[in-house]
Structures are given as C-alpha cells and as structure tokens.
Amino acid sequence: MRASWVEAVLIASGAIVGWYATQRWRTSSTPAPRPPSRDYLAGVNFLVNEQPDRAVEAFLRAVAVDQDTVETQFALGALFRRRGEVDRAIRVHQNLIARETLDPSFREQASYALAQDYLRAGLYDRAEKLLLQLAEGGTYRIASLKDLTAIYEIERDWDRAIAIHRDLARIGGTEQPAAIAHYYCELAELARGKGDFALAEEHLRTARGEQRRFPRAALLQADVAVDTGRPELAIRLLKRVPLLSPQLAGEVLLRLVRALTAAGRDGELPGIIADVAGDGRDVADALAHAAIVANELDSAALLGLARDYVGHEPAVAEIVGALVPEEHGLDDAALRRLCAALRRQVLRTARFRCGECGFSSSGFFWQCPGCKRWDSLKPLTPSDLAGRPAAARGR
Ligand SMILES: [Zn+2]
C-alpha cells in the first residue's frame, strides 16, 4: 500500500508539474492548455488526506475524460498491474491502443504494456501474440524476445525457446548464454524418457557444441551410457563433473556408484573418489556432504572424507570438539551416528538455495523456480543452515 501511495503521488505531481511547466513556457501564440480537471484536484486532495485508493479512482476518472493524458494513463496502467489489478491495467492499455490518433511510439509502448498485463495474468497465448509482433523490430525488440523466452520456458516448448535464444544471441541480447545448452539437455531428457537414445545423444552433442565443459550434458551422457550398456564411458564422464562444478557432487555420487556396479568395478570406488577429491577441499567437501545426505558411507573412502568434513565444517566441528577430546577423535560408530543426525537435519530443511534470489527448496532444479536463472541453485551446508560463514577454502 505504501508503494502504491508513493506512485499515486508521483502520478499526481507529474500531471501538476507538467501543467505548470506548459504555463511557464507558453508564448502568446500557442493555445493555453487546460488546467488540471476537477477529478485531478480531487485526486490530489485524497492523496493529501492519505486515501490512495480514492485518489487512484479520481485520477482514473480524470484520464477517462481528458484525452491528452497518455503518459498519465501509462503510469496508472503500470500502477494497477503492480497492485495486482490486472483487469483494470488491461482496460487502460486496450483503451490507449484503440485510439486511432495515437502516436506510433505510444502505440508500441501500449502494446508492450498490454503484453506485460497478459503475462501477469497468466494469459500466455495473448502475450505471445503481441510479443511476436514487437520482436520483429523497434524499441521493445530485445525485451519482447526475453519475455518470449520466459513464456516458452514455462510452457517447456524447448524448440521455440531455442529459436528465440538464437535471435537474441544474434542481436547481442542474451544474458544467460548457457540457457540454450540447457534447452538441448531438456530435449535429450525427453528423448531418453522415450527410449530414443540416439536422438538423446544427438541433442547432447549439440548442447556441448553450444557450451563447452557443460556439466549437465556430461551427467546426462553418463545416464545414456549406462542405459545403453557402456558404463566405462559413464565412469570417465562422471569423474570429470565434480572438477567442473563441485556443487554437483551430489548428482555425481549415486550415478558413479551405479556405473561402477554396472561395470563390475565396485571395488574401485575408493580410488576414484580419492582421484576426484584430489588436493582441493572444495570437491572433497562437496563429495562428503553428498555422501552424508545420500547415506552412502559404506566405502572407507567416503567415510574418510566424511571424517575430514565434520572435523573442519564450522557448525559441526565446534559441537564435536565440545563433546570429544581432540586426542581421542571420533570412532567409526560415533562418526556414522553423527552423519545420520546431520542427514536428518539436512533433510528436514531446504537442501538447496539460489545464489541469485535466495529461493530455497528440498529438491534440485537446473533453473531456479524463483528468478528463472539457470545453474544458480547450490547445496546448503550445515554452516549455511546454521547461518554461519563456511570455513576458509583451500588447504
Ligand atoms: Zn533464484
């Protein structure tokens, strides 16, 4: 309500200032503009008396009578949309478009505003129709292409999303270059779901062509490789993913166990884990966290990573230090009980959070459902959950 009130003040002051400005610069040869209408003045009066709803009503009556108030109508339309009164916003913008004498630039602006109303109302087919016209050229070309991308992502129409992304890339308007590789991965997942592995692999090749070192394509390629009896290829691909993107360790771990089992190489898990974890703490911590959450602690290699992890993860290490003398350390049974408790704690709360908008969820998404960024969800550590800064990185 406070924001609406401020906007209503701005609309009113804009109209009043505009009128006085035209008075100030008016020469004797130009016709005198009309003074603000009674409805305007009534609107201002309501504002002064902190009655923003009645003020908006008065301004709406004023613009309905006065046909020279295009900017004010745009401001009112935007205000209605922001207040969630989309029907009224649509009426304001449709009335503007219906004016035969409207300047072409205002007509374009009104069409784009109307498309925003339709988007807000969830009327995607109507929004799409307007946006496709606006995307052909003009002031709103890039903005319309971006809105079309959002519509096709919501509708999971990946072929159209790809075509629009290419248009945007041609005119330098893409903010998320990796999005197109995700669209091809979505198509690959659909093909894999239908058992068309050749088509899935073709889409994955295109995804890798669009975006080199693309972890999602490697994960999916590993899935298809296991599906088609090529676990060795899957193992090679999976070993690379945590190095590209440590936060995907959770996505890698269970696939790796599955591929090693399929290849009859279960015994090699410790060696591979040690290889992948390497000397950097980021990948080792990510694998340990993923193993704890997935309850995959049977291998000595993963249990060793978990021991190291709880020893320096600030939110956990402090509690362990208070209970167990440092010279004794945790025995295996106590470590497993601690990991089980951590796992329950993590599963009770959100497990992932978007680094862009803060959206959190218990499941993993490649695209944030909140802000629609791709690759922005990261797993939450016990320190994140406790609201503490993580330990300094690196050994
Ligand atoms: Zn987000």
Give the topology string: H per helix, E per strand: HHHHHHHHHHHHHHHHHHHEEEH
Shape: elongated
Helix/strand-derived category reads: mainly alpha
Major beta-sheet overview: 3 strands, antiparallel
Structural domain tally? 2
Radius of gyration: 29 Å
- Poorly predicted segments: 17-30, 390-395
Mean pLDDT: 85
Strand order of the largest sheet: 2-1-3
CATH topology of the largest domain: Serine Threonine Protein Phosphatase 5, Tetratricopeptide repeat
- What are the bound molecules? zinc ion
Number of helices: 20
The fraction of residues assigned to DSSP E strands is under 5%
Q: Quick one: CATH superfamily of the largest domain? A: Tetratricopeptide repeat domain
CATH level 1 class label of the largest domain: Mainly Alpha
Q: Identify the CATH architecture of the largest domain.
A: Alpha Horseshoe
**Total beta-strand segments:** 3
The percent of residues in helical segments reads 55-70%
Distance between the termini: 52 Å
Task: Please characterize this protein's 3D structure.
This protein has 395 residues and is mostly helical. The protein has two domains: 2-170, Alpha Horseshoe (Serine Threonine Protein Phosphatase 5, Tetratricopeptide repeat); 179-385, Serine Threonine Protein Phosphatase 5, Tetratricopeptide repeat (Alpha Horseshoe). The protein has helices spanning 2-25, 38-48, 52-65, 70-82, 86-98, 104-121, 124-134, 141-154, 158-170, 179-193, 197-210, 215-227, 231-244, 249-262, 269-277, 281-294, 300-312, 314-323, 332-348, 382-385, and strands at residues 352-354, 360-361, 377-379. The model is unreliable at 17-30 and 390-395 (pLDDT under 50). Bound molecules: zinc ion (ZN). Zinc ion binds next to loops.
